[in-house]
Amino acid sequence: MRVHPLKAALLGLLATFVAGAVLAGIALARGPAQGSRLITAAALLMVVPAVLLAVGVGLFFAIACVSTLVGPRYRTAFDLTLLLKDPGGMTPERLATAVAAATTTDVRGLKVRRASRGQPSACAFRTPQVLVELVHHDIPSWSEPQKLASALLDPAVQRAVGDHTASLDIQLSVRAASSKDQDKSKDVAGVLGRLCRELIDSNCLAVLTTERVSAGITPIDSEFVATMRAAPPDHLAEQLLTAPAISVDHDNPLVQEAIRKTREALPQFLRLLAQADEHARYFAYVTATDGEATEHVWIEVEDAAGDRIVGTLLRAPRGLTGVTAGSPISADLHDVQDWIVDANEYITGDHISRAIGLQEHRRY
After folding, report:
1. Dmax (CA) of the chain
2. Which helix (H) or strand (E) holds 239?
3. In Å, how far from its chain's centre is CA 307?
4. N or C, where is the chain less crowded by C-beta within 10 Å?
């Protein structure tokens, strides 16, 4: 039987401390005259472990603090949620098998937690480079999925959001010293793609990219399940992660009221943009046109000039040609339907998501 070195050291210190306490008891029973030497030995046996333990704890916390401040740590690289029709399809055993298949890892090396006392079932695996976490919830991702579904435009997305009863969160993190050094390589994307191939089946209604801004969703049907088997894992991951942004129904009263509030608060957005906080990011949901085609898209705003804003497109549009994610784009202030300022994860704006309940997703 293998014993962890840290556990062995703690047990040794505890045994020494107990031995000192026993000697102290014997010394007190014999009286001061006969037990002076025993008292000295007992004091040493009790004080030395306490000092060593205190020094050890201090060193542990010092090393942990230094590692947190300057050392590499796991940072989220990919984040998806599977919307499920039946909550009973994702057992802990299946989660463990999927992670093992995606990472070529022995299932026995995984950490699996069964659902109990309100805690969801989960599975996790860690390597020096990658951390994979899967959490299964037997409740919908939103508190009012029907309310959200009624405000969406795509019928397939409406059905997936309105009919799902459970979900599976997939988070893949990579070890990096900073977010700039984060490695979203083909190999890491391949792990996510293999996970999705193992987990997406007829019980999966859609795959949601749980980004705070410009969330995208891919409806799943039998044709998608059949074609994804032949797709390279990294291509499958890219397809899911770059899904077009969720389209909302602009005739919905909740959306119309949110747009009205957006335009009233537009001076606040421009004022925050002018402050140019280096820790903040600025986004706008705008109407873009290409000939007769019109589409609402999210852009990351870089500057405002006169009555126009300029930035880059966050996601590839559904119907516009000649532009893709990252393409430069400008828009008239009158075409701004919503805006978000994300300053160290403190969100300002986001009127439409708040109105229809999209931002109530637990991963936001």
Report:
1. 104
2. helix 233-241
3. 36
4. N
Return the structure tokens found at 156. 């397939």
- Report the distance separating Cα 341 and Cα 348, nearest Å: 5
Residue 2: φ, ψ to 5°: -85, 140
Instruction: Give one DSSP letter per residue of 193-243, joined into a string.
Output: HHHHHHH-STTEEEEEE--SSS-EEEE--HHHHHHHTTS-HHHHHHHHHTP
Burial 298-327 (b: 16+ CB within 10 A, else e): bbbbeebeeeebebebbbbbeebeebeeee
Four-CA torsion 303, 308, 312, 315, nearest 10 degrees: 140
Paired with 248 in beta bridges are 152
**DSSP conformational letter for 279:** T
Asked if residue 232 lies in contact with residue 302, where contact means CB atoms within 8 angstroms, the answer is no
Q: How far apart are CA 287 and CA 262, in angstroms?
A: 14
DSSP class of residue 113 equals E
For residue 252 the two structure tokens come to: 């919905």
Helix axes 32-70, 5-30, angle to 10 degrees: 160
* Position 205 confidence tier, pLDDT thresholds 50, 70, 90: very high
Partner residues linked to 218 by β-bridges: 207
Distance, CA of 93 to CA of 103 (rounded, Å): 15
Which residue bears the tokens 């919908």? 140
Q: What is the pLDDT of residues 308-360, one digit of tens each?
A: 999 998 877 777 777 777 888 888 999 999 998 888 767 788 888 888 888 76
Counting other chains too, the contacts that 66-70 makes at CB distance below 8 Å and 24 or more residues apart are 70/177
Q: How far is CA 159 from CA 13, 147, 193, in A?
A: 61, 12, 24
Taking the C-alpha atoms of residue 146 and residue 161, their distance in angstroms, rounded to an integer, is 7
Q: Report pLDDT digits (tens) over 3-60.
A: 555 566 666 666 666 665 665 566 555 555 555 555 566 565 556 666 666 676 667 6
Give the separation between CA 31 and CA 50, rounded to whole angstroms. 26
Q: What is the pTM of this model?
A: 0.71
* Sheet with 73-84: strands ordered across: 111-113, 121-126, 130-137, 166-176, 73-84, 204-209, 216-219
